[in-house]
Amino acid sequence: MACTSGLLLAMSLGLFWLLGIRALYQAIYVAVVLIWSFVSFSYLHDRMHVQNFWMERNRWTRWWFRKARRLHDVHHRTLNDDGKMDRNFGIGFFFFDWLFGTLALEQRPFNRKGYEEAKRRSQMDESH
Questions:
Q1: At a CB cut-off of 8 Å and minimum separation 6, what does 115 contact?
Q2: Quick one: pLDDT at residue 2?
Q3: Per-residue pLDDT at 13
Q4: Which runs of consecutive H residues, i.e. helices, occur in the chain?
Q5: Could you tell me the maximum CA-CA distance found in the chain, to the nearest angstrom?
Q6: Which of its termini does the chain have fewer beta carbons within 10 Å around, N or C?
Q7: Are the C-beta atoms of residues 73 and 65 closer than 8 Å to each other?
């Protein structure tokens, strides 16, 4: 995953260079992408799994955080037939899920076929 992210970042910078984007703006882009990634994936994602987190108690963030957590729970509990979680990737920012059609407001019924496929794939990964 880190290799893919690094490749995407390098491709973006290459495109910026071809387009003649100033180095200052490229640096701002890199800083924002890295900070957003850290906040979304390292900080916020982990806190979605912590009970009584400060954002849940704060009157300014409570509504958003509870809604984001509920949608994030749908992400973890929804499997397609290939055993993959294919909904609600946004963690706390669901605009792109809405845009790309991956937003699920409700949890689907338990998918036994998807669950068995996920177990099979997990066992294959462990044997390597």
A1: 79, 83
A2: 57
A3: 93
A4: 2-19, 23-37, 45-47, 54-57, 62-77, 95-100, 112-126
A5: 52
A6: C
A7: no
Say if CB 26 and CB 9 are below 8 A apart: no
CA 111 centroid distance within chain: 22
CA gap 4, 85 in Å, rounded: 19
What local confidence, expressed as pLDDT, does residue 90 receive? 83
What are the residue ranges of helices labelled H in 78-103?
95-100
User: Per-10-residue mean pLDDT for the chain, 128 residues long?
Assistant: 77 94 94 87 87 93 92 91 91 87 92 93 77
Q: Is the dihedral of CA 13, 14, 19, 23 positive or negative?
A: positive
Total residues found in the chain within this entry: 128
CB 83 within 8 A of CB 118: yes
- 123/128 Cα distance (integer angstroms): 9
Tokens 């009157």 locate to 59
SS3 30: helix
Q: How far is CA 77 from CA 9, 36, 55, 118, 123, in A?
A: 31, 25, 22, 12, 19
